[in-house]
Design goal:
- By secondary structure, the protein is α+β, with helices and mostly antiparallel strands.
- The protein has a domain of 27 residues.
- The protein contains 1 helix and 4 strands.
- The strands form 2 sheets. Strands 1-2 form a two-stranded antiparallel ribbon. The protein has a two-stranded antiparallel ribbon with strand order 3-4.
Length: 54
C-alpha cells in the first residue's frame, strides 16, 4: 500500500523552525526540496552548484 507523500510534506518555514535555520543563518541561500529525505537542502556551497547537497 503506497504511502501518500502529502502526509510527510511540510513547508520551508516549518523546516527552518525545526532545524533553527533562518534567513540570517544562511544568508540568501537557495533551498531545494529533497524528496528522498523530505526536507530542504542548501543549493550551493561557496557560490557554485554542489550536487552533493541534494
Amino acid at each position: 500500500m503506497p504511502i501518500s507523500n502529502r502526509a510527510f510534506l511540510f513547508s520551508l518555514a516549518d523546516w527552518q523552525a525545526a532545524s533553527s535555520q533562518d534567513g540570517s543563518s544562511i544568508e540568501g541561500e537557495q533551498y531545494l526540496y529533497d524528496r528522498v529525505n523530505n526536507d530542504f537542502d542548501v543549493q550551493s556551497q561557496y557560490g557554485r552548484w554542489d550536487p552533493g547537497t541534494q
